[in-house]
Amino acid sequence: MFHIGDKVVYPAHGVGLIEAIEEKEVLGFRQSFYILRLLGSEMTIMVPTASAERNGLRELIRACDVPKVLEILKKNDVVICPNWNRRFKDNLERIKTGSPFEVAEVMRILVLLQKERNLSFGEKKMLENVRHLLVVEICHAVNVAEEEVRLLIEEAIANA
Predict the structure, then answer these.
(1) Which of 42, 71, 93, 129 has the most CB atoms around its CB within 10 Å?
(2) In the 8-state DSSP scheme, what is residue 81?
(3) CATH classification (class only), 7-59
(4) Would you state the pLDDT for residue 76?
(5) From the CB of residue 74, how many other CB atoms can be counted at a distance below 10 Å?
């Protein structure tokens, strides 16, 4: 159970702030919802409290887990699926898990692929998205400026 003022992560959308917990009537049933404002945008999302965990709503990564994310980014032992459609779908599924480790894995795959050949438009957008998701979450988890986190991530992937 989360509380008003908690920072949480909503898969594929990023870090949000729980601004309220409200009851609404939906399809004739009263339900409780977390009202999330995504940080860095003006988007607001309503997440049913009863299914929040099943939908992937979770706490921010712990500061002690940040080095694990950076280690994933440093690895260069990845098997890249040659089929673009399959690869894109697999990466999208990883992002939807909401796990920062899976998101880092997608970033690593795309960065290594980019070193071999040009990424498709969709994969370029995906790379931008996962980079942003990681930077913002780590930034809020360890209370460091986004630019510092961005440099930390770029340094990790440069070593891959």
Answers:
(1) 129
(2) P
(3) mainly beta
(4) 82
(5) 15
Q: What is the dihedral of CA 42, 139, 114, 99, to 10 degrees?
A: -80
The gap from C-alpha 31 to its chain's centroid, in whole angstroms, comes to 27
The CATH class, in words, for 63-158 is mainly alpha
- Ordered by start, the domain boundaries in the chain are 7-59, 63-158
Cβ 60 vs Cβ 8: under 8 Å: yes
- How far apart CA 160 and CA 90 sit, in angstroms, is 21
- The candidate with the shortest Cα–Cα distance to 104, out of 144, 140, 61, 64, is 61
Which DSSP letter does residue 117 get?
S
Contact indicator for 81, 33 with CB cutoff of 8 Å: no
State how far Cα 66 lies from the chain centre.
Answer: 13
Tokens matching residue 115: 């070193």
**What's the CA gap between 35 and 16, in Å, rounded?**
9
Three-state SS at 43: coil
**pTM score:** 0.89
Contact 98, 58 (CB under 8 A): yes
pLDDT in tens, 100-137: 999 999 999 999 989 888 888 999 999 999 999 999 99
